[in-house]
């Protein structure tokens, strides 16, 4: 009987340690997302071309840059320094189109103007020349958490 209790306690302790480790890893990964956004040093204006919804609040925002093209190569440089995430990406490229993953898709509409400032972790959404909403670059990142070394 005592052996079973000892085994149950050992399993419970190991389970709690595993849960704590996962919790800490996820928080480190979330903190790293914010730092990643600030490392991009992107500041540009864009116009929303279209939306591709996965659900009511989740999907892709397709856009085109207005004015000077930013240096999107900063993402590759920032990815080299990740520790808690395997890879992150803000701007997605597909068939010559630019997009980003919005987890608050309900704020965006085709034709909206965007002011993107990764240093401030902000995506400002303007509709009819007025600020309609704000979003965060760090929440628009696509990527995955690095659970173990060696990707």
Q: Please identify the structural class as seen in this structure.
A: alpha+beta
Strand adjacency order, main sheet:
4-5-2-1-6-7-8
Whole-angstrom Rg: 20 Å
Low-confidence runs (pLDDT<50, min 5 residues)?
A: none
Give the helix tally.
2
Oligomer: single chain
- How many domains would you count in the coordinates? 1
What helical percentage do the residues reach?
A: 25-40%
Please give the alpha-carbon distance between the first and last residues. Answer: 43 Å
| Main sheet attributes: strand count, strand direction, barrel closure | 7 strands, antiparallel
Can you walk through the features of this model?
This protein is an alpha+beta fold. The protein contains two helices and nine strands; from the N terminus they run H-E-E-H-E-E-E-E-E-E-E. It has helices at 2-40, 74-79, and strands at residues 43-53, 59-66, 85-89, 92-94, 97-102, 113-117, 122-127, 130-135, 142-145. Strand 7 (122-127) and strand 8 form a beta hairpin. The chain starts with a helix and ends in a 6-residue tail after the last strand. The mean pLDDT is 87.
């Amino acid at each position: 009987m005592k052996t079973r209790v000892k085994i149950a306690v050992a399993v419970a302790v190991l389970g709690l340690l595993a849960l704590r480790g996962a919790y800490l890893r996820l928080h480190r990964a979330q903190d790293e997302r914010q730092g990643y956004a600030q490392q991009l040093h992107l500041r540009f204006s864009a116009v929303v071309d279209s939306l591709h919804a996965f659900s009511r609040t989740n999907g892709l925002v397709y856009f085109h840059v207005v004015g000077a093209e930013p240096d999107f190569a900063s993402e590759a440089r920032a990815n080299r320094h990740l520790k808690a995430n395997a890879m992150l990406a803000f701007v997605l490229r597909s068939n010559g189109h630019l997009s980003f993953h919005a987890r608050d898709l309900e704020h965006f509409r085709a034709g909206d103007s965007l002011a993107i400032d990764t240093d401030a972790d902000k995506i400002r959404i303007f509709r009819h020349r007025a600020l309609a909403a704000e979003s965060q670059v760090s929440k628009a990142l696509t990527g995955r958490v690095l659970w173990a070394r060696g990707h």
